[in-house]
Amino acid sequence: MTLLLTHRDVERATDIKTQIDRIEQGLLEEARDAVELPPRLNLATTSGFFRVMPAVMRDSGLMGYKVFHGSVQHGVRYLIAVYDEKDGRLLSLMDAAYLTATRTGATTGVATKYMAPPEARTVGVIGSGLEATTNLQAVCAVRPIEAGKVFSPTQANREDFAARMREQLGIALSAVTTPEEAVSGVDIVVVATNTTGVGDLIAYRGKWMETGSHVNSIGSTGLQLREIDAETFQNAERIVVDSRVQMEGESGDLKAAMAAGTYDRAKVTELKEVVAGRAPGRSDSDEITLFKSVGTAIQDVAAGFAVYKEAVRQGLGQDVGEFLELKTF
Amino acid sequence: MTLLLTHRDVERATDIKTQIDRIEQGLLEEARDAVELPPRLNLATTSGFFRVMPAVMRDSGLMGYKVFHGSVQHGVRYLIAVYDEKDGRLLSLMDAAYLTATRTGATTGVATKYMAPPEARTVGVIGSGLEATTNLQAVCAVRPIEAGKVFSPTQANREDFAARMREQLGIALSAVTTPEEAVSGVDIVVVATNTTGVGDLIAYRGKWMETGSHVNSIGSTGLQLREIDAETFQNAERIVVDSRVQMEGESGDLKAAMAAGTYDRAKVTELKEVVAGRAPGRSDSDEITLFKSVGTAIQDVAAGFAVYKEAVRQGLGQDVGEFLELKTF
Lengths: 329, 329
Hints:
Number of helices of chain A: 11
Structural class of chain A: alpha/beta
Distance between the termini of chain A: 22 Å
Number of strands of chain A: 16
Shape of chain A: globular
CATH topology of the largest domain in chain A: Rossmann fold
Helix content of chain A: 25-40%
Oligomer: homodimer
Largest sheet of chain A: 8 strands, mixed
């Protein structure tokens, strides 16, 4: 059977801890070279883009792809397809808007687990959207967070976010009026925005970095987007990315840092290396660390499978049968 | 709405002439540089492959992809997704096993229309499978074919094919006992096999080529497959391919011809150039011409859209609603 999952089904079948585990396993698999993860394809459309990201995970026995397409005018849509890698069955097709946010959060969770100070108790969040939510959830899943601050330009948004997250996560979270205040004196920073860098619009600045803190930045996944400034790359003593190739080719933040000469490849490691124990996530308690993510199809397929399994368990979704017929060569 | 189409739905919604028209339009669009057609991605799986082929057609207002995956042991599956390129709606997801055969046939139809002698009346077919069927259908759609011969190694297969095609196409088609006999004295040749080249297994040999004839070869779409020998490339005076990059990278026939030194790039044109009138398909009535195809996502999306339109008209398929939710950035 192939299971179709709507946005609502995916929401109901999502558990951030399960996704953190699945993605960590996926990264180990990537480190073992048991995956195929080609650079994703970005095709231009009349008003936007059509992005296709496939992956094969041989040890997990999974394969699939995400298609993310749209435009600023018409809006965007996300689809993830998950297949059984061994026998080729199409297990599920799912709306992946929510999943994209949770898998991004879950990946931050994995990075935070390996990179943040073990005793981290406080968090500063810049952004109040879905990605800010899932990233904060994931940080709280891997560290005993007790308190935090959130900044978002619109007062109602940051206050709603703080109230919602206090309730949901049981942490003392307050809304603050500047980004600098949000990230001042905290152990872990989460930057999760859609800022464009037009004018002086940068969400986070390297001069705010503090000794021993860990920063996660998950925006700027396109060349037109900016989120953290070039100085951030300079002040970070260790930088971990989810995909070096994708990062260097597609992130506006990286492009700017490379242009400014603040991006030192010698400081940069891929997350899979850290998870596999081949590189440290943090060398000592004073180190300033940065995790920067653009997203990979491994994250999508791993998290998509977790959602599919849970959806089956809960009886969610629409079973459209063996819709793809098996043929012989 | 998104329309799910099964193998049977696709069969019922297929018309080879419509597909020939659609693919011809797609090739014109390709010639105008109004498409995005990146090299397809081939990912290795434990026992086979996972192939992802996306395309954007801006003038047609379409985009989509084919995913073709499987293995010799477990069998293969084909999926085509067709989207509205302007507003991003997912129009249809369809089983594309049958469609792959018909779009390959329809592409041969376009090539034959431009390359075969205008007065062609006879055809020789090597192969008796689904691709042989669709290719013969397409040839008969663009030329006033009256008679032909078919060879396939298994007697029952070639005789069944001849009987079925006589009935369906109203031509005098006879089964013959050697490939050479099948292609001797005919105006147009169709080679549509899955031969591997193991031992001496080549379906067609260049020494059989005759003055003024046109040969279509649509097998050998992987490096492990062989269909026509290296001499065929030498004896062909004009060679047209659907995708030069894909052909040179993925066809076992091309690899062998390049190794033998019989593949002369100066003789090779892409089909879009011929359809756009920028290169002739045939220079005179004596010329020996060869069309060789590996398949492109433009063919898939163009033909997929034709099937979708006809399925809507006939009320076929399963409407799964607006299964992908529209989001804003």
